[in-house]
Automatic annotation (TrEMBL):
Keyword Ligase attached: yes
Region forming the signal peptide: 1-15
Segments of skewed composition (Polar residues): 342-370
GO cellular component: cytoplasm
Domain BPL/LPL catalytic: 739-933
Entry keyword set: Ligase, Signal
Official protein name in the record: BPL/LPL catalytic domain-containing protein
Amino acid sequence: MLLTFIYMILTWARARRLTPLRTYLFRVLNSSNSNNLPNYVKPSLMCHIKSSDSSKPDVNSKQTDSETSHDLLTSHLCSNKNTAKLYKLIWSVGDNKLCIIIPQQKIDVSEWLVYPPGKTNFPLSVNNCNQTKLADDSKVHLLIEADINNFNPSAFTRTIKLEDYGLLLSWTADKLFAAIMETDIDHMSKLSIALMESFCFINNGLLLTRIESVEVSGKPCSYNINQSSLGNRKLVGKAQWKTHMETLKLFSSTARRVSQQKEPFEVDTLPGIIVSPGTRSLSLQMPTVLEISHQHDTLEAQEFKTEDSTSVPKTPPPTPASLSMMDRGDSVRRSLQMSSNELHTTLSRNSETPDNQLSVANSNYSSTQNIDEDEPKETKSRASSDANLCERILPKTFKGDPFDMSYTNRAEKYSEKRKFQNYPEAGKPPNVLIYADSTLASDNIERVLKQTLNKEKYIIYKLTPEDARRDVWKDQANLVVVCGNVDSEIASQLVNYIVKGGKLLALCSDALHTLLPSFKTAEVREHELVRFSYGKWKNVQMMHHIFCYQASPIKSRFSQDHEDVKTTPVTPASSTVKDKQGKTHTFQVRVLGAEETWHTPSIVLADLPTTGGKALFSQIHLEADPSQYEMEEAKFEALKASNPARLEILSDLLSSHLGVDVKPVASGDVAFNPGFFLGRHELKLEMLERLKDKMETNDIFKTNKIKLQFCNNTNKLVPPSSSILPIMLHTCPDNFSTIEYFENLKTKDLGRLVIYADIMTSSMDVVAGCKLHHGLAVIPRQQTQGQGRNKNIWLSAKGCLMFTLQLHIPLNSYLGNHLPILQHFVVVAVIAAVKSIPGYEEIDLNIKWPNDIYLGDKVKLGGLIVPTLLESSEAICNIGLGVNLSNSTPTSSINDAIKKYNEKKGTNLAPLGYEKLLALIFNQLESLINSIQNDNVNHFYQLYYDYWLHTDTQVSFESPDGAIREVKILGIDSNGYLEVQSLDGKVFSLQPDGNSFDIFKGLIAPSLSR
């Protein structure tokens, strides 16, 4: 208990230091023109630590006194180090300091090396997988420097992991080890605090001496280490580290030579290791596309696809047009020629793609293929040549018929046109978007919304200024929350959003003046605590907005204390606003709450009856947590006392006036239960025997995300929680019918072993980063942290069918050489499982590329992710799927579709059962995998094109240079990438590209042309 209490105190103290530092750095580094900097110079943050743990320097390492002195201010690696001047000293103890320097320091990384992605021990032991979520509005490049002479592998108690603070992009080694990291101001602040608290050791036990925000230019060199054990070596002692450092220096000296002479060179004493000139600049907007990782792969192979000639089909994969000419037996011949209206889709659950864009983002695959050590060099070298074939293009709009005449022959090969059943339009997607003018305000809003909203119905995302100025979010938001200042362009976007039926909550924002032009700034109230009343809540003390807006006309001066002021400025009953197109809209205006002293309106509602659009304005800081004012004792006590009322008022405003569901599932209500290990006894023993050597005390096995305890009759059951899942070996669950499941399961491997739990964090956590068993299914009835594509959230409502299925696929098989196509197998298996039941063949389930399941063409029911790890000769694929089976919210469900089908057709089809559908999906998936592994590829394509939505759709793309390209969708290629044809007849493939936020950044990148 004492240790816990001490830890809480330390955590609280650290948080108090972090918040003001983060706020200050955000203001200085992001808005230098508002901080009286000379000529609006952009500054750098520099934190330098001269630790007492430093040992004596290496005798071979020489540094002059002047160099040592200058390095206290900036790094010797910076190209403009001689211009560096101290602007502001934030913290200093001896030679240790945290300061702002001007101008911003610059580093050219042309002589550096690219840092490999994924888990690697070269050059340092890190998990460089971009797992850290970075804020798009405050990204920076950070220089990391570490003392190579202070390797201390036993410094675990004071070690911080660099990967917890951002993504490592490049490195070099000479007098010290240096790396460039992509991070944001929040994580940079945390790292600075850690340094100030003397947590100075990083990965490999290196002594961290400096972090510094820098501007990066140049293209770092690339290299291959697949023929060497460099990437596998785990360093134990100082002798091994010294040898390792000599290797790093050798790589760096080779990189300098390569950069100067602009040609590749082999690393001395390391035959076959080639360092090549850089081809890609380091950008703060670099998308992360890698999900398949293998520490033996070359960097080029991890970025670009290398296909062995034996793995490429002799003929291209069939398209919908070509398949229509085959004998397809009882397969339904259907055309999917779509108009732009038919392709209008709503963004459901994991907030993926706007309605005017094709859903092509974040398939969670890369085009990586494993390169065996004995593979010919000619094959390996193609990885880098493929890079020249890649350029990125951004989808703009769908365009319907008429098509260009050059497409006519191909399109007419489909004789039957697809007609979708008349399903109602889905409601607004469950996205709540936050736009704030500071990170602190944004975090405050997110925190209070998580306390207030129904966690099973809404997903919270943050809007960057760039995204807010675009149109794509308007149809994807159930609610938009704005705090602080908005510029005129964003304000105009908000007006257009509201007049189309959108809901807006504006907290202490000048957006009020945009929608209510008659409201003017009456006075300035900086950090003022006021009393206001709303509904049943009277005289509540809370912080007021710095500006006080009220309706005009107002008095020319404020009344004196002796004056009898009882008149209140009259708020107009309506307000007229013009949208971006110049059309006039009249809002009804109503004051809901008022400040008690001056009677100024505190909460105002503007309602547009014609469309249902509403805007709710608060001049009270409903988002501010009382802890922000701990340093002001009187305010803190008052706000703490008012905090329950603050949450109640916000909840009432959202539910009563904006139609938001505010019945939160409290975190305390989440009761984790033990899981159950289901399947044949001999299969269980086989898996447990394989894991035996990796188990800890009490039969606990640790994955990358959670601990699993396999419980028999002898060991003690640990309490289940979000961090540990006890799994009962010899009992069956009450809420899962093993009879129904195993009676319908006809597979050899898939689903034969099951880990089931009523509730768990995520089924993906159970298999994260580990090889368990081929065909193992992890099945939760409910999840608390469901995962969508590329870090998006999957709402795991009760009634949703979810599982993670682990497959071990040989890399020398057809599927092993075309791993990205596996995602398409899964969506086909789900739809085929439903349609395989007699009477259910016409339930209108369809595929939206790359891997979404749709009801008709408008309502999303499900999706999947397939993170993959290459291990030796196998690919370990963890298929995570979620599909709405019985839950009608937030979109619709399969059983809803069956009910509507019964009403329309007069049939009496029963709702599908949870256990039966799981078994049927696994049956279909194993059948499809066996079919393609036995070279019957066309069977899969026939099913796929029966269900998909995009045949003959014409799409307009915009390339980065602004050029517009028109293409027509033909089908998918052998890897599952989208195959299209341009107007000039050129056929090429488009592959999904990973992004931090699908709803705004749906990129498509061209693959290989032919």
